[in-house]
Design goal:
This protein is an alpha/beta fold. Helices cover 32% and strands 26% of the residues. The longest helix has 25 residues, at 89-113. It holds the Pfam family Pyr_redox_2.
């Protein structure tokens, strides 16, 4: 079988992979991208976990469920009467699927526009050859391709509970959680991470009784403690039952649902019977079927591909990006690494600053942050000063009818350089970008405090929090 020759082959069409392919093509390389994800009809569905069973569909359901909750609980405050409110879960899921397909089709269009050759199938290493690497593509028909450079962007898979594998009917990963056909009466989540809280929020809004079982003694341990406490207060008020310091025991799945044995923080044995269980205890790097051993690709003890600071593997001209390597498992981190690698292949100086990668949890209230938390700075022994401003004192938040939460700035005590910005409240997923830009430019809290922000806007809370660092807020 004659190999088709390329300068760059990207394995995986998720955020890291398709962006790397497009950027490499923009830089003049002959590029191929291989992705095996299939839609319901067996056709190509590039975009990876993010587009198909992650970021995009979850946001679609979050938006739909938020509309439903607003119509049922909040429209009356605006003088809007709703009678006979109903719920069509099938239509909600169909809308979600449409949003996913639009994104799939958009990526295929971008490949065509940028002259990236797309192969629908699973790529695996065959051998090294005189041009670099030969790969086998197992799809509708088996093909062989060769490339000087290979970028691995194969993503990650959901981690299952020991002894309780995913069946995607009763015990669900993020995939099954997005396909529940009707509102479960009782729903449990193991893990209070991003996926758990977002999916818990969706089904709680639609009427499920939701219990979250979290092994850690603290809620959202990676989030600034003050922000996490504020978020938990809001979730408690909404009726999301969150149990901390839990040890999960035997999980049994049957015709009537799932039975979970667990021990609470006091060491007391408990039992919880639910219709569905969503497991959100992290993700594991995906190298299944890659056949890296054929060429000597090195993995670490977690199963992640070992890379250096430039995303180079132990093999010449083989690179890896995104969830399959070290660092945060975030779509936008994967994108930045994909661009950086394409530019490095071209001899440019691609750059990713892990200190300014933003994090967002799309619950209501939303949670967003960038940089260091107050507890991290305390552990470092670094002198800092902090300022907060509540959305309760923000005019636009009052007009929206959503005054939950706050913005928090942390700056160096001596230089005033912004070290971290943390938010919980309305639309903070959008507000956090200002903080990312400021930190990239090594801005001080004073810089943000001196910049004119539109009135009335939620962004004024950002300005006021920066003013609060110097104890001179104007509206609180």
């Amino acid at each position: 079988m004659q190999s088709k020759q390329f300068d760059v082959v990207v394995i995986g069409g998720g955020p890291g992979g398709y962006i790397a392919a497009i950027r490499a093509a923009q830089l003049g390389f002959n590029v191929a991208c291989v992705d095996e994800w299939k839609n319901g009809k067996g056709g190509p569905a590039p975009g990876g976990t993010c587009t198909n069973v992650g970021c995009i569909p979850s946001k679609a359901l979050l938006q739909s469920s938020e509309h439903y909750e607003h119509a049922g609980k909040h429209f009356a405050d605006h003088g809007i009467k709703v009678e006979g409110l109903g719920l069509d879960v099938a239509k909600m899921l169909a809308r979600k699927d449409t949003v996913v397909k639009q994104n799939n089709d958009g990526i295929l269009y971008l490949f065509k526009k940028n002259k990236v050759t797309f192969f629908h199938g699973r790529a695996s290493f065959s051998k090294t050859d005189e041009t670099g690497y030969e790969l086998k593509v197992a799809g509708a028909a088996e093909e062989s391709i060769s490339a000087k450079h290979v970028i691995i962007a194969t993503g990650s898979n959901a981690r299952a509970l020991p002894g309780a594998p995913f069946d995607e009917e009763n015990i669900l990963s993020n995939d099954g959680a997005l396909r529940i056909g009707g509102v479960p009466k009782k729903l449990a989540l193991v893990g209070s991470g991003v996926i758990g809280l977002e999916m818990g929020s969706v089904w709680r809004r639609l009427g499920a009784e939701v219990t979250v079982l979290e092994a850690l003694p603290t809620f959202l341990g990676a989030v600034d403690e003050q922000i996490a406490k504020e978020a938990k207060k809001a979730f408690d008020k909404q009726g999301l039952k969150i149990e901390l310091g839990v040890k999960v025991g035997e999980v049994k799945s049957g015709k009537k649902g799932v039975s979970i044995a667990w021990t609470n923080a006091k060491g007391e044995d408990q039992k919880l019977d639910v219709d569905k269980l969503i497991v959100s205890i992290g993700r594991v790097p995906n190298t299944i079927g890659l056949n890296g051993e054929a060429v000597g690709l090195k993995l670490d003890e977690r199963g992640a591909i070992v890379v250096d600071d430039d995303c180079k593997t132990n093999l010449p001209n083989v690179w890896a990006v995104g969830d399959v390597v070290r660092g945060p498992m975030l779509a936008h981190k994967a994108e930045e690494e994909g661009v950086a690698v394409a530019e490095r292949i071209a001899g440019q100086h691609g750059h990713v600053n892990f200190n300014t990668v933003p994090w967002v949890i799309y619950t209501s209230p939303e949670i967003a942050w960038v940089g260091q938390t107050e507890q991290q700075l305390k552990a470092e022994g670094r002198a800092y000063k902090a300022g907060t401003f509540p959305f309760l004192a923000n005019g636009r938040a009052r007009a929206l009818g959503d005054t939950t939460g706050m913005v928090k700035f942390i700056a160096d005590a001596a230089t005033d350089e912004i070290l971290g910005v943390h938010m919980v409240g309305p639309q903070v997923s959008e507000l956090i970008s200002e903080a990312v830009v400021a930190m990239e430019f090594k801005a001080s809290a004073e810089d943000i405090a001196r910049i004119c922000h539109a009135h009335p806007s939620l962004s004024e809370a950002t300005k006021e929090a920066a003013l609060a660092v110097d104890k001179r807020t104007l509206n609180f």
